[in-house]
């Protein structure tokens, strides 16, 4: 594995500028393509799993975070408040308070539960400049977040479903979790004091992990201030471990925000809140992807999916027309013209592109493509339309396989139950 900061610059994915500030990376076009594909994947997976998407502002009044408890328990990690017209605003350290407010903005019935609210939204952390770097220690974070509001009876199923969604995403991303961690409170005053609620949530998360047959380790002092969580840990190129995905059970925020739903009995009840992130922050997820794959992303994430290589100028018009066909199918296709160097040099330049289509006189005459795969395999010449259709099918299925050799139906990564 290589450090994502080095690869990110080499591959023109992202960069930083001291004038913008440390910990505030910007995304270059190829990095933006990867990020966009990732965000699309997450939004689609969430929609299929019954989530509704919302948008909420990246700041809020100080009172909002006093109510949520962030101001008391988390202030050291927050940017200082800004005074505007006699009111104080803070850049949000999490999306939860906004989502709790959106939940309580309308009357809710048990028929609407579980209510799954998702957002890919910005949040901010006042990290000290000494620890900032690349995409893993940043001050502006784009979080894949969601909150499930449900009844206590629905809780275990929702936690299970969230874990299953995380595992499917890891299959598609080609990321292997280092371990599952059950994060519990430690000594000290940063946790909300409610021993009975902590005990109940911890028992539930333990049961779900046991039931799923997932090996896990308990870690004290790693819980959120309002509740215990399951963390999915990954390892970076330097061997450092960090949390990518989380599922947290929270009885506390619904109390603070006085959240209610009308039950089948016509009376008011308190929902439980699950905080869940499938890929964590977009920044950390892309850093992990860069390191796990050394820049050779699964085809559905690759900035360029297919590069077409006309052997001579004579095949350039054919390459251009094929590129148009590919783009019309939604594929990201580039043409590497003969003027850019010898065929061998152009192939080496495109070594991270999953599909390379070599177009000689015979291919142009027969409307065929002789494709080379990134892993070195060469395919027999195929009719151009078939080659494009098969690449498109693998991309649409978010497959980590480069080719459908056996055509044996859906692969392990195509599961979308
Ligand atoms: Zn949350």
From TrEMBL:
GO cellular component: cytoplasm
Domain of life: Bacteria
UniProt keywords, alphabetically: Aminoacyl-tRNA synthetase, ATP-binding, Cytoplasm, Ligase, Metal-binding, Nucleotide-binding, Protein biosynthesis, Zinc
GO biological process: threonyl-tRNA aminoacylation
Domain Aminoacyl-transfer RNA synthetases class-II family profile, chain residue ranges per copy: 29-298
EC top class, as a word: ligase
Annotated catalysed reactions: tRNA(Thr) + L-threonine + ATP = L-threonyl-tRNA(Thr) + AMP + diphosphate + H(+)
Pfam families noted in UniProt: HGTP_anticodon (PF03129), tRNA-synt_2b (PF00587)
Family indicated by similarity: Belongs to the class-II aminoacyl-tRNA synthetase family.
The protein's name in its UniProt record: Threonine--tRNA ligase
Originating species: Streptomyces oceani
